[in-house]
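subagent[fold] <- orchestrator: predict structure for attached chain, return tokens only, no commentary.
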Amino acid sequence: CTAAMLLIFLLPLISSLEGSSGAKREMLCTPKACFVLNMEPVDFHKAQEICKDDGGYLMTLRDRKEEEDLRSLLSLVEKQHPVRVLKVWIGLKLMRKDCVLPDRPLRGFKWVSGNEDSQYSNWEQEPPDTCITESCVRVAYTFSDQDQMKWTPEGCRKKAAYACKFYFQGMCPPLVLQGPGRIVYESIFIKQPLKTELKLLPYGTRAGVFCGGHETTSSRCKELDGAYAWSPPGPFCTLETQNCQKDNGGCAQKCRQDRGAVRCSCREGWELGEDGFSCRMMDLCRPDTCEHSCVMGEAGVSCRCPSGFRLSENQQNCSDVDECLSQACDNRGCINTPGSYRCVCGDGFRLSDGECRHVNECEGSVCDHGCVNTGGSFSCLCQEGFRYVPDSGDPQRCRLHCAQQSCPAVCAAGECRCADGFLLEGQQCVDIDECHMGQCDQSCLNTFGSFLCSC
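subagent[fold] -> orchestrator:
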């Protein structure tokens, strides 16, 4: 009966199952939602379609808590996945005709669950500037405790694994068997049976109870009097007589006879399940074991850190990763922040598509005649017969100018003009000698276009 007992394959809260095509899936449930990782690569739109057909949507990562939920799912496939990097779609998309907005956390992208924005983001590189091309976001997981779960914009037709999110009204605890048997759980959004022990099962889950090798009854997680419970509640697989000599008394490991009844126990490093018969690996994680999160595995306890942090030498605490030391911004400026970093560009440059691109300040300039782009600024040019006067109060305007006795007039549309201090004669501008006009009390010096008085 040991093989018929409720099997325990993975950590609490997490289930492993096979998809309809044979592709591996992983599942995790929290008090209000369940997350399913689908390993079969599909394009973004197909992934969203599958999630919606099952009653959910592509998983969002609106805060570090949801990011850690996804990390917990991805970490389960470490020993099974044949490649070093697992690419996973998340529910973030830039719609066609929407523009990239560099000053916003989501850069103009929107969550598929709705138009709600979020302040959390974790971009690997800046999305390319566009207002005409749709773009979708994936996470690349490298099976490392220091993996930063960075977001990368991709073409939506590329293929990747994907994670679906399902909201539920509530959860039920697992059913308890009072004798040898097994329970097969079937969730409303997973069409294949779940054969693993879970500590939370979503509203609507069906439990098929097998006693003696065949299904004897079933129960369903329902809302009853404001709470969530199984209906019917059991007990299931009860025994009139128990004996360690027969099928080990139904115990998964050790069996001890006690006055007509059996008492099951487990080997060192294992603990008795809630059903009193099965054994599961002891969870050695305690509140003070790890600074951030603690994971039980076959090798024992391991600590994990959130994105942007790494395990310290004591393998318990987390320290910030200074991404700037690894040239995360290439030759751009880099500012390290707790758990992340920010790339900056110098004056006259703007971050675009992960690179610092020169800003053309002449675009939209107010120069009269011509403009020269410079690093972080611009200079105005004037045509022949004009000059740029920086202290004139209107530095972008070109003024008529002549630096000799006479200059050609500037003519347009049958009208000719001269600079101040010059007189139009035909199509020539001739300097006016203001000294002959008695402009000074004593000494007067005529200049081209003006004059100087002295005493």
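orchestrator: received. Logging for downstream: Confidence is low (pLDDT under 50) at residues 1-16, 18-22. Helices lie at 44-53, 64-75.
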